[in-house]
Amino acid sequence: MVSTVNLKRAGVFFFAAFSFQVVGASLPAFAETTPPGDPKAVKDEDGKYFDASGAPTYNIKPDGTVDWFTYSGYRRYHAECHVCHGPDGMGSTYAPALIDSVKVMNFDQFSEVVVGGRQNVGGGNDKVMPSFGLNKNVMCYLDDIYVYLRARSNDALGRVRPAKRDDKTQGTTDAEKACLGE
Amino acid sequence: MRRLLVLTAAAVVTAFAGAPARANDSVLKLTQDPNQWALQTGDYANTRYSKLKQITADNVGKLQVSWTFSTGVLRGHEGSPLVVGDVMYVHTPFPNIVYALDLKNEGKIIWKYEPKQDPNVIPVMCCDTVNRGLAYADGKVFLHQADTKVVALDAQNGKVLWSAQNGDPKKGETNTATVIPVKDKLLVGISGGEFGVRCHMTAYDLKTGKQIWRAYSIGPDSDILVDPEKTTELGKPVGKDSSLKTWQGDQWKTGGGCTWGWYSFDPQTNLVYYGSGNPSTWNPKQRPGDNKWSMTVFARDADTGVAKWVYQMTPHDEWDYDGVNEMILVDQKIDGKDRSLLVHFDRNGFGYTLDRKTGDLLVAEKYDPAVNWATKVDMDRNSPTFGRPMVVARYSTEHGGEDVNTTGICPAALGTKDQQPAAFSPDTGLFYVPTNHVCMDYEPFRVSYTPGQPFVGATLSMFPAPNSHGGMGNFIAWDARQGKIVWSNKEQFSVWSGALATAGGVVFYGTLEGYLKAVDAKTGKELYKFKTPSGIIGNVMTYTHQGKQYVAVLSGVGGWAGIGLAAGLNDPNAGLGAVGGYAALSNYTALGGQLTVFAIP
């Protein structure tokens, strides 16, 4: 069952709203991309950090403590993404290294690919990324996954499970529940 | 040495000479002839043993490449070619091309079949678009495509004789497995455990493709084809609603239990043997109960599909230890008594020996000493937990609970062995097993189900088994009568290639770096290696042509191994200093589908 209601909830939770049709909207293989710019966090909204362009970013303290979203992104990446893209965003024989991809694509472009999917078929090396637009396990954690990959791509975080992290705020817990429809 | 009998096709044919058709006559005839290779598994018993002995432990060192063939596909290449008469049938991963090559004419392509499939099936396939190969019977070549279309091709010209749709990729139903022709039926499994698919085994009419029976792994008795009174587990009737009772509410409807492994058949018992996969999701807290009949060995009547016996190896899975690995059917003596055995190397790290007629559990021992999630399988027949693994709380992700990272679990979700099939030699009485030597941290968390979308619910990180040789694999010889490792060769990477045992006293396997290796069946001593163009996740096979023995293997790195190991593993507990401390597969090999055929010049 595809739930419009839940998608709307996701849209509320993720201030990035996607107006194009989700299902079957596959981007061409080599869409124009823009690098994401300086990852420096300039704004903190209830434990969630944003860069100067308004895109979500990581915030890692000198003692290695990561923000909740970087930590959550680590977990969600290794549940939803790694079965194709390999551990730690490093890529695989099957799909590209996302720690490289997010160096050249900004948050909006990243989100478009996750929501709409992507196809690069033919030549005996068919690559197809599905649309995750209806998958709450991904969509409710899109920022988290992006923030994690962004930290990895800038070597702000190594190939390790973050040892220390900020706590999850009540606001984040509430928003997560609302997004998941719980 | 005691004389050991394998249940070979030959023996069966002799036993039933003149009787009405049992098994499939054409398959029996072909699989008893070592000059051909008509089933992926070599024979119905899945022994992967060849009686050919031109290539021996003494001369295998002189092996050379005889000829090669590029498949034109870059994805992971599992399975092996078939040889029937003068023709070799080669398959590829998605798009699932089939080539018929003329062995009389230097491998010239006689025909090529390339199905049109919606590429949207690609990302629905968990862990690469592999396909574990074709089967041959009655002049037909059978292919089960990624999109779950089953096709029967005319072996002469590649024309489609019939096709049947086994599942719906839009719901996450896909296929990676081979099929097995049994009597007048073709048995077909399905994948989708990471998408909440409720999986099944289906029999189609070999001549027409009409569905004859379908047996789900999970669900009401009428769906799972059990007889509550007659179907047994460890000697006791399973009773009414044996599956439903072990799930909460409607969770069984997205329960998994997929059937993507290998299938074997015993013409004497008329039973088909296979295992079912993990229950969905990977978060055990979200599905209380034993989750029957996931993680189960099934013995089903080939004609009706009704289960004679079942045995659930990993009740209430907490680690993704699919039970799909091959069931190898052999006849060996245990305690001086001739036994009809089923030997199975499970993902969970235990090597099981069962009586294949009754499903009685005889041996269950760890085939990698690193295995730690359970201390042992309870072998006390009087115990209420007889046959169940004794789970160690520290490594239980159920015990640890949601959002808790349970660390240091061995084996990893890859299993001590994944689908890569073992071989059995009746000459030595030993099993030759390609294994993974990898452990993991596993953190389950809550997920919601969306049809056609991944339904995983756990975060994993994997690393080579600690306090060992630092490699990620072993190639071992196993005595299933006693449950003991006889010898073990360490490997840098997981061994993801199916083994081949031969009467020449040589055992072959491939490695992820791309080596084809030959070892002495008795000692494990390496006798030969050759680096093929890409990592090997295919299975080694052998045949003769014009009186000469050949050994063939598909290269083409990929699959779960290629995804997990391409960038190398990292010990999550070793801190930043260990980054890059373990071998990255990408430093050794790259994509490329190729068949390499070896012979002694």
Automatic annotation (TrEMBL), chain A:
Any coiled-coil regions, as ranges: none
Sorted UniProt keywords: Signal
Biased composition (Basic and acidic residues): 163-182
GO MF, one example: electron transfer activity
Signal peptide as annotated in the record: 1-31
Residue ranges, annotated region (Disordered): 161-182
Protein name per its UniProtKB record: C-type cytochrome, methanol metabolism-related
Organism: Xanthobacter autotrophicus
Automatic annotation (TrEMBL), chain B:
Active-site residues from the entry: D320
List of residues binding pyrroloquinoline quinone: E78, R132, T176
EC number of the protein: 1.1.2.-
Sites where the protein binds Ca(2+): E194, N278, D320
Top-level lineage group: Bacteria
Cofactor: binding details: Binds 1 PQQ group per subunit.
Cofactor(s) needed for function: pyrroloquinoline quinone; Ca(2+)
Residues in Pyrrolo-quinoline quinone repeat domain copies: 37-386, 497-551
Disulfide bonds: C126-C127
Keywords: Calcium, Disulfide bond, Metal-binding, Oxidoreductase, PQQ, Signal
Signal peptide: 1-23
A family per Pfam: PQQ
EC category name: oxidoreductase
One Gene Ontology cellular component: membrane
Gene Ontology molecular-function annotations: calcium ion binding; oxidoreductase activity, acting on CH-OH group of donors; pyrroloquinoline quinone binding
Family per similarity comment: Belongs to the bacterial PQQ dehydrogenase family.
Protein name: PQQ-dependent dehydrogenase, methanol/ethanol family
Organism: Xanthobacter autotrophicus
